[in-house]
Write a structure and sequence with these properties.
The structure is a homotetramer. Chain A is mainly α and about 190 residues long. Chain A contains ten helices and no strands. The first copy, chain A, folds into two domains: about 50 residues, Homeodomain-like (Arc Repressor Mutant, subunit A, Orthogonal Bundle); about 130 residues, Orthogonal Bundle (Tetracycline Repressor, domain 2). In chain A, helix 1 crosses helix 2, helix 1 packs across helix 4 and helix 1 crosses helix 6. The longest helix of chain A is centred in the last third of the chain and has 22 residues. The interface between C and D is large, with 37 and 37 residues. The structure holds a DNA duplex (21 and 21 nucleotides).
DNA sequence: CATGAATGAGACTTCATTCAT
DNA sequence: TATGAATGAAGTCTCATTCAT
């Protein structure tokens, strides 16, 4: 029984790698099966179609990612610290999971991922928007555009991460923090907020 | 002779649309040909292979985009104004060219685009890095990380643009400028710089 | 397992016939598959490409042919008798296998057959050259040109066979032997040699 | 007007080379046109179809070949000398025209050459059979098989020629003659015949 | 006559999926 | 449940031939 779990996991991992390296249509199911150590027919016992398979890969990655992003968030008391935690977690996760990072980039927005899957995943980002809701409330910034704030945060975060990717450098807290502080300065977020 | 130009243009446009909507392998060359109003064989007179075709689509988009981004840049005297111009141009371009925006997102980083093509395109972004070189010089910020500054700029710019995309709103100078000013405040860029 | 053998054999036979009748490029793989009673895709499970297929056809023919040419050769004591055996075997084989005869004629020297295949096949003709080596030794004919002798033998043999082909007659030992004796007389090979 | 002749000749020569090197279906008409220095469409002004083209190539080669084989034949008085002349001419011709030699080997018997063409060509070999008719008459060999004699001659002749081809040696009268004499000895043909 | 862009049938080959074992 | 041979629709690309210029 647990064996089944392992096989499923293996197929997901192999698919992730191959889809990223070769594209969806560039990866035959026979190749996934072979690298996963199962017969072609067996693959379809685990995932009825190739389309279902890539959606499951996506869900697995997203859930794992979100768990990591928002992990131990309650330990932090104020908003800036919470944001910093998310900032760091997400950059580190992307550095440590280059294949998953690329998978998101190529497929998260694509037509391979069904709308149902996208909606299901979207819900889990609530913790992030909660933080910005609270910031706006606390700082009494009326008319402030919450969505724009969130987007700016995500943009700064992702592109700071890209830096380490481009430079092929390991994560560096100092560099990352400089970037984070610039973002906070920009939106006027103080240490005590 | 001009007829050939037009046909080529038509094929590029149709390919762009279909690749974005259906993916590379999801778009048969026969479909591209049909929608372009030429025979299957004719397509291959213009582009020897499907791979070459998608690379040409990419190049066409990038060159057009870069022309737009950096257009009339010399009219602006100082760095902040130059950046503002690029900021606006790029957001507007992405709003006005949703298919090209999505094409970049899906394919710019993918293995469909050859390394040769990527390198060729990369060179044209020099005007942007020149601006940041000058900013760093003028403000005497030693040890400043130019690449990180550029990435932060691009991130802020793209994600500000995403806002209009998600909200399905037309471009709004006020909203865009608020975002831009936050970015400048973050890196300490003044009006007179 | 045995079923696979049979299918492979069937495809080889059908290919042989069609390649001879219609040429390599004149024979679509779909036609080979259909006449072999398998699906188009199945053909490629057995032979990865059409090029590999024709090389396998060639190898199969050559090996079968050589087995037949040199069969029971050890029973004969002297060189002339050995040559006679090969002479007869090869003519009879060509009469009984008209398609294989034509296949050799059209393709053995062509660019469809890879150099690797040709070299692999060439090695198996050693028994024939061994006989001529011994003849030259025994008859003490110094300076004799072994290769020329072999070529003359093959030429006489093949063109004697052509006689039956052109006349559409069955094999006739008397006629064949007259030709053989002329060849022996020409090179001075006696019954006791 | 003479210009047309030259162009026709050029196309024939290019076709010969390409058909031998790449096979009939492996040679696009566009490639023949290009290497011949004419436009694709022009080719079809000279030869209505590709099939007609290869038949014309074949006829050109055969006529040239036969002219060479039987040239100055009347100068020789007796049969052996006539045969020797043909023997030499044909071997030399094949050495000097390796492409034409291969063309014959690949295509003379193939389905690319129409039956009409083959029959037309066959007629021109009468001078050779005349010689053997006379030999049989003169030597009073009843029951002798004329066709078999001719075939043996052709076989010996071609395979003697193959010797020089395989050895990549230039023509050598002594070696060639040894072979010829063996053939004559075999059929009992004397110098005075 | 010469040109070469356009045509579209047809070639080889791949691959998601099924099913008998 | 696992297997992997078989399927055949569908994909990319070629090429003999035509025809407007």
């Amino acid at each position: 029984m647990d064996n089944k779990r392992k096989k499923r996991k293996k197929i997901i991992e192999v698919s992730l790698k191959l889809f990223v390296e070769r594209g969806f249509h560039g990866t035959p199911t026979s190749m996934i099966a072979k690298e996963s150590g199962v017969a072609t027919g067996t693959l379809f016992n685990y995932f009825k179609t190739k389309d279902i398979l890539i959606n499951e890969v996506y869900k697995d990655i997203e859930l794992e990612q979100q768990n990591y992003f928002f992990k131990n968030l309650d330990e932090e008391k104020n908003s800036k610290k919470k944001l910093k935690k998310i900032w760091e977690n997400s950059i580190i996760w992307r550095i440590n999971n280059p294949y998953k990072r690329r998978f998101g980039r190529y497929f998260s927005d694509s037509s391979f991922i069904s709308d149902d899957t996208k909606i299901e995943i979207y819900k889990h980002y609530k913790p992030l928007s909660d933080i910005f809701t609270k910031i706006i409330e606390k700082k009494g910034i009326k008319n402030s555009n919450e969505l724009m704030l969130i987007l700016n945060f995500i943009g700064a975060c992702i592109f700071t991460g890209e830096y380490f990717y481009i430079m092929k450098e390991p994560y560096n807290e100092k560099i990352s923090n400089e970037s984070f502080e610039k973002f906070c300065k920009g939106i006027g977020l103080k240490d005590e907020d």
